[in-house]
Amino acid sequence: MSDTVIYWFRHDLRLSDLPGLQAASLTGNVIPVFIHDEKLGDDWAIGGASRWWLHHSLASLAGTIEAMGGKLILRRGDTSSELNKLLTETGASHVFASRQYQPWSDELERNVHDMASEHGAQFKRYPGTLLFEPGSVATGAGTPFKVFTPFWRACLRSPQPEAPKPIPTISFPEVWPLSDALDTWNLLPTSPNWAESWASLWRPGEAHAKNVLTEFLDDKVQNYGDGRDIPSKPFTSKLSPYLKFGEISPRQIWWAAQRCKDQEPGRASAVDKFLSEIGWREFCNHLVVQFPAMPDKAFNAKFDHFPWRGANPSLSAWQRGNTGYPIVDAGMRELWQTGFMHNRVRMVVASFLTKHLLIDWRLGERWFWDTLLDADLASNACSWQWVAGSGADASPYFRIFNPVAQGEKFDKSGIYTRRWVPELKDIPDKFLHKPWEAPPLTLETAGIKLGHTYPSPIVDHKEAREAALSAYATLKALSSEPGVGQ
Length: 486
Ligand SMILES: Cc1cc2nc3c(=O)[nH]c(=O)nc-3n(C[C@H](O)[C@H](O)[C@H](O)COP(=O)(O)OP(=O)(O)OC[C@H]3O[C@@H](n4cnc5c(N)ncnc54)[C@H](O)[C@@H]3O)c2cc1C
Hints:
Layout: E1 4-9, H1 19-27, E2 29-36, H2 48-67, E3 73-76, H3 79-90, E4 94-98, H4 105-118, E5 122-126, H5 148-157, H6 198-201, H7 206-220, H8 224-227, H9 240-244, H10 250-263, H11 268-290, H12 313-320, H13 326-338, H14 343-356, H15 361-371, H16 377-388, H17 403-410, H18 415-420, H19 429-432, H20 440-445, H21 461-479
Bound molecules: flavin-adenine dinucleotide.
The site of flavin-adenine dinucleotide has 27 residues, from helix 9, helix 11, helix 14 and helix 16.
């Protein structure tokens, strides 16, 4: 038996603070492997925008490994079969990996364990994706938390996450198994290349993740408390795609944040607010481990009876940013053009879809899955259910964002909206978020012809609000029937 370890990279595309890689480097020669399993997750296989990030993330990881004298072996196909072939080809004695928490991960890891055993090899999984392992944070009664605040308080009372580890010294084998060429995976879009401008907006990879974190904690975090709700301001970290692909670990963020508080005590409350958002990521992941149906099924079973509408022309107007509500359209166009949307605007567009259009939250969740660079099964499902009212610790259904008021409050000067909806750039601030109220001469001067150069609203806010509330009333009536709700 050789002392060769396959390190199976998953959503942990980094070299530092990776317990499994650390262990591998102490065990033997390491063969780093990534398997592109296009069928993994079935309906939740990787979305279009994420494929773009994955390509660049793998290129970056491969470059770093090569600079250390190794190789990143790329294989495409069924995960267990590819690992099986690699064990045969290399005679490796171990397969190490970070544990993942998608609904299908446990079964996959069991299969890999059994398959490795047949080779006489050992499969070991390590933490690496979360601050606290699911199951380790529980209520006094030992049950999972369903409400965020007590969950996060319990996390903060738990022993601190271990301090992050630097990149280990890794020894590599002399002989390598064959690898695919990354370009043959066609992860990048072509004809049309809708991601053409993304390389100027995003820099995937571990080194960049660290720079983004440092810059955020050095220059931006002090504005996070108040500024995080203003979409035109660069006051959030934009770490979500790096976290999604594991290019940075939450432990690295946690410890960097603690250092920032020690060095600049005046920033402590803003840093704590930022950490509590990392806490939401944690909460969502812990919930999905407990309730694996979360991406597809309402957490609150009452909502199984909600009269959601399916796909209709309003859905495509929403997807394309043509609803006639400027803040909604700005958000949806930001998403389409950059693979990202500011959190405040995500809440506004999700509320608009589920409440103004009464369209099933799952259709919005799917669209985000395909278009977000940070598309994360747990955070996406929990956030959509939070807005729709069906989730754990959800926003009450009757809280219906008024898209005009949201625009006026969070994008008062219109910088964000005008950037993404340039056809409204010359309208006075007063009418920016409700162009249909502008006098004809104002519209004409601004070069706007409603219904032609910019859509008229696809629904009337007041009528939509009433329709949403009466749909919700049917749910309330149902909730008293036995067997409905939880
Ligand atoms: C409808 C909807 C869908 C969403 N889908 C996703 C998704 O697929 N992937 C995703 O990472 N986030 C999702 N979010 C949460 C949030 O919008 C993004 O995490 C955030 O906008 C990322 O920007 P940032 O990195 O600048 O965040 P920051 O404000 O800097 O927060 C730091 C980190 O905390 C985490 N975080 C922040 N807010 C949340 C939250 N509400 N829930 C869970 N984690 C959070 C993210 O990892 C984020 O990078 C969704 C929110 C909504 C309302």
